Amino acid sequence: MAGLACLFASQAFAEYAMGTMTVMKGGEVMAIMPDGHMGTMMPDAKMSAEMMKMAKPIKHCMMLMTDAKGKTFMIDTSSAKAQAECKKMAM
Fold first, then answer.
1. pTM for the whole structure
2. 63 neighbors 73 (Cβ within 8 angstroms)
C-alpha cells in the first residue's frame, strides 16, 4: 500500500516539476498574490463586463517566478531570447 502511495505521489511531483498547467476557461479570472498563492473565479456577465473595461490583452508570453522566501516576481520577456525560452516553457 505504501509503495502504491509513493508511486502516485512521485507521478504528481513529476507533473508539478515539469511545469504542467491547465488552460484557463473562457471568462475565468485568475488572481496571483505577491506571496505566490492564486485564486480563480467565474464572474457573472455584469462583473465580467466591468472587469474587461480595466483589462489589457497579453501581447507575448509572460513568466512569473517565486523566490526562496515566497515572493513572486514577473520576468522581463521583452527580448527575443527571453520570448523563445518562455514559449519553450509553455509548450
1. 0.62
2. no
Q: DSSP alpha helices (H): ranges in the chain?
A: 2-17, 45-54, 80-90
> What is the gyration radius of the CA atoms in the chain, in angstroms?
17
Nearest-angstrom CA–CA distance, 30 and 41? 7
C-beta atoms surrounding 82 within 10 Å: 15
For the segment 21-50, what is each residue's pLDDT rounded down to a tens digit? 678 899 999 999 999 899 999 999 999 999
Q: Are 32 and 72 in contact (CB under 8 A)?
A: yes
Q: What is the pLDDT of residues 13-24, one digit of tens each?
A: 445 555 666 788
In the numeric block, which cell numbers belong to residue 63? 513568466
Coil, strand or helix: which one is 88? helix
